[in-house]
Amino acid sequence: MIKRLTAVFCLLILVNANTSAQLEFGTITSLNAPVTDKPVRLKWVNVNTADDTWTVNNDGMLISTGLPIGVMRSEKQYENFIMHVEWRHMEKGGNSGVFVWSKAEPDPESRLPDGVEVQMLELGWVELNTKDGVVPPIAYVHGELFGVGGVKTVPDNPRGERSKSNENRCKGKGEWNTYDVVCVDGVIKLSVNGKFVNGISNSTQRKGYLCLDAESAQIHMRNFRLIELP
User: Fold this and answer.
1) Which pTM value belongs to this model?
2) CA-CA distance, 36 to 96, in Å (whole number)?
3) Tens digit of each residue's pLDDT (9 = 90 or more) over 169-199
4) Is the torsion defined by CA of 81, 87, 91, 92 positive or negative?
5) Dihedral sign, CA of 24, 29, 33, 36?
6) What distance in Å separates the CA atoms of residue 1 and residue 146, rounded to the nearest whole number?
7) Rounded CA separation 138/142 (Å)
8) Residue 162: enclosing H or E segment and its boundaries?
9) What distance in Å separates the CA atoms of residue 198 and residue 143, rounded to the nearest whole number?
10) Confidence of residue 14 (pLDDT cuts 50, 70, 90)
């Protein structure tokens, strides 16, 4: 009990120290905005990672070192939206993702928040996590969707409580992948590299922050665009 309370206390100190720092990455616009309006830069708040975990280079590409494990969150909460993001892992078996509809309050042990995770895994993850000859399902690495931290969903393509993509479309280390994610009224539809292949419905949490996930491996993201829907 004392160990867990200490961990919670340390996490609160880290969160309070970091939440004032902001980073600009990507753009946001409204579906109803006049065509003459320019997209607004998205601002992100470091929740529980290091000051140098996230950087944006001169080309506008976001680089995450993956360490320490944790997230940064959007400045504001969102409910209905379309999210476009391009990403590539730089290490074999790299792990990352985007949490949508999150409270952005990380669990002290996992250091990750609640919400619905849109998984981003490098293809080599399956090989690296084979144990005693048991190979994890290939679906792990092709854009799974699942609730985290008590958030429940109904999967379109069930693999237990998770929803797996119905087609393997992700590319491997060093190659760019494109996700288009439509989130409306507790329903999520995921397009991987130009085709809708996964989805969930009836999410028990339908509004919250976006959280970008640092999870032990370097990942790059670019062309992050958010369109807010009514």
Assistant:
1) 0.90
2) 35
3) 999 999 999 999 999 999 999 999 999 999 9
4) positive
5) positive
6) 29
7) 7
8) strand 162-163
9) 8
10) very low
